[in-house]
Write a structure and sequence with these properties.
Helices cover 49% and strands 15% of the residues. The protein contains 16 helices and 13 strands. The protein is globular and about 60 Å long.
């Protein structure tokens, strides 16, 4: 071996021996932030969902970076959620130099109404919020829908970000820009499409939820698996115990996959002209159950679970799918301790009236998502015969006549 070759090897060895300690000292102790580790899901336009644990504490700084021209930030939350996370978010925003105010509503579906929407708007007007205002929705589906609708209409529209604190809000209501309030005629009948600029889905915020609150949100994930993703359904079928116990890996997989599924649909049909309507599987019968007085309090997801089972049964009667799929989804929902029976005190004629004003209906016909098997559905809801549905329901509900 020549002298030049030996000299080159020596110099290379010397350089590496010097560089390695420098490199290791530079990167020793380096830790990625929760935002850097989060999985990002694009939705429509500049709307994005960030999914990962530990995001919450980093939100104020991220908001400051993403909205440099915003002069005022309005946190909208309910009193229960605000008691858990509100002050921390408010203080975090102020520590970043953000001019931030907060408004708390009474928890529960009754707050998703015209009166409370006007109260939030009046609060913003009194505090001189202008078009360079950002609304921050901190809470579950009620807060997200209400705050989103406020943002959609305030001064003809200001941006909103969503920080969902329930499984239901994370996998469904916070994603895709649907905002609404309830009116006496039914749920979500007055609203607007208004995409959140960012949705921060931090699974650590779910730790304070009861089992009932967790499982009702998981019903929407089962729904996504049923209509579009057989792999998700299989996973939830096999891992029910782990998911219910909020095993971090299992729950993260379900939430990410369900959000990704919804984002894919919204990207194809933002304004619900066809395909997006299929995401309302279980909601035709489910909303009717939810809207009527019952002996037991049932959450939205629990009513959707009931709706899925019986809409699939109607589809099986119509010849659109094998009845074995009805049994399969029933058993899967039961594994999550979700109800599958229509409350016996409900009257068929009352349920039919509610179903007739469902948003999916066209030309006066009741329409439902046509599931053809686990993970497979038609791209547009189909009309169903009211007489057949009424007959089916009367066979189940003692209150029918």
């Amino acid at each position: 071996m020549g002298t030049d070759s030996l000299r080159s090897k020596f110099l290379l060895s010397l350089l590496l021996s010097c560089a390695t300690p420098c490199l290791s000292s530079r990167y020793r102790g380096f830790k990625m932030s929760a935002l850097e580790k989060a999985r990002s899901i694009p939705v429509v336009g500049d709307s994005t969902v960030l999914v990962g644990p530990g995001l919450f504490s980093e939100i104020p700084k991220d908001i400051k970076n993403k909205f440099p021209k915003t002069s005022k930030f309005v946190i909208v939350s309910d009193k229960t959620v605000y008691g858990l996370y509100g002050d921390k978010l408010l203080e975090g925003c102020k520590a970043q130099g953000l001019n931030t105010i907060a408004y708390q509503i009474t928890p529960g579906e009754k707050s998703k109404c015209r009166k409370v929407k006007a109260e939030v708007e009046d609060f913003m007007l009194e505090n001189r919020c202008l078009r360079d205002t950002l609304v921050i929705a901190l809470g579950g589906g009620v807060v997200g829908d209400l705050a989103g609708f406020v943002a959609a209409t305030y001064l003809r529209g200001v941006p909103v970000v969503q920080i969902p604190t329930s499984v239901m809000a994370m996998v469904d209501s916070s994603v895709g820009g649907k905002t609404a309030i309830n009116v006496p005629a039914g749920k979500n009948l007055i609203g607007a499409f208004h995409q959140p600029r960012v949705v921060y889905a931090d699974m650590l915020l779910l730790k304070t939820l009861t089992e009932k609150q967790v499982k009702e949100g998981l019903a929407e994930a089962v729904k996504m698996g049923c209509i579009r993703n057989a792999g998700l359904f299989d996973y939830m079928e096999k891992n029910a115990e782990k998911i219910l116990k909020q095993d971090s890996e299992a729950l993260a997989e379900v939430i990410y996959t369900a959000i990704k599924g919804k984002a894919d649909v919204v990207a194809q049909d933002e304004k619900e002209k066809g395909l997006r309507s299929t995401l309302n599987f279980g909601h035709t019968i489910g909303h009717a159950v939810e809207a009527l007085e019952k002996k037991e309090v049932l959450y939205h997801g629990e009513c959707v679970a009931i709706g899925m089972v019986h809409e699939m049964a109607v589809l099986a009667d119509m010849g659109h799918l094998d009845a074995k799929h009805v049994d399969r989804i029933t058993e899967c929902l039961k594994a999550y301790n979700l109800p599958t029976d229509i409350p016996e005190e409900l009257k068929v004629e009352d349920m039919m009236k509610k179903m007739k004003i469902d948003k999916k209906n066209k030309n006066g016909q009741i329409r439902i998502t046509c599931v053809q098997g686990i993970g497979k559905s038609l791209p547009d809801p189909i009309p169903i015969d009211e007489g057949a549905v009424s007959k089916y329901l009367k066979s189940l509900v003692n209150g029918g006549s």
